[in-house]
Design goal:
Elements: H1 21-33, E1 44-49, E2 52-58, H2 68-71, H3 74-77, H4 94-104, E3 113-118, H5 122-130, E4 135-140, H6 145-153, E5 157-160
Parallel strand pairs: 3-4, 4-5
Antiparallel strand pairs: 1-2, 1-3
């Protein structure tokens, strides 16, 4: 029995509103961010190549360590403003965790796109550059001029949706 091809007029309205690839992967990293254990900001990221997810990450304490949600935020206790003194934090950033997960599982990140709920900080920007990421798509900005400058200098485009 031959299959009948449905006309676009008969397709449900929902199908006609499919997100483009960038919106699709940004929605996925938004969901990933819900796993965050940071008291201050939930961030999610994902590395993608050829429309396939290579690795994801969210911000939080390293494996086997207590989470800030459980023991409190060191940065809040020390009254450290956002974007400063990243080393005084128990957590890893979402972008760092995505790169680390790829490395841990032997996944090549060269030529990938990073999707992230926020613009990377300068520490993450340096990791992203050396991981071979060629493009970044973000939902929200983040005030880090040095990170933006370094990504531009490395030829990595940053697109904000």
């Amino acid at each position: 029995m031959a299959k009948r091809k449905a006309s676009s007029a008969s397709l449900p309205e929902k199908i006609n509103k499919r997100p483009d690839w960038d919106a699709y992967f940004l929605e996925i990293v938004e969901l990933v961010s819900k796993r965050s254990t940071c008291c201050r900001r939930a961030v999610g990221s994902g590395l993608v190549r050829d429309h396939r997810i290579l690795a994801t990450g969210y911000n939080g304490a390293p494996s086997k360590l207590q989470h800030c949600l459980d023991i409190g935020c060191l940065r809040a206790q020390l009254k450290i403003p956002s974007g400063e003194r990243h080393e005084l934090c128990r957590g890893l950033h979402a972008e760092q965790n995505a790169v680390i997960q790829a490395a841990l599982h032997g996944v090549n990140t060269k030529g990938s796109t990073l999707y992230c709920t926020n613009h990377p900080c300068v520490i993450c920007a340096k990791m992203i550059i050396n991981a071979g990421v060629v493009r970044i798509v973000i939902r929200d900005g983040y005030h880090d001029k040095l990170a933006a400058q370094m990504l531009k200098e490395a030829g990595i485009s940053v697109k904000q949706l």
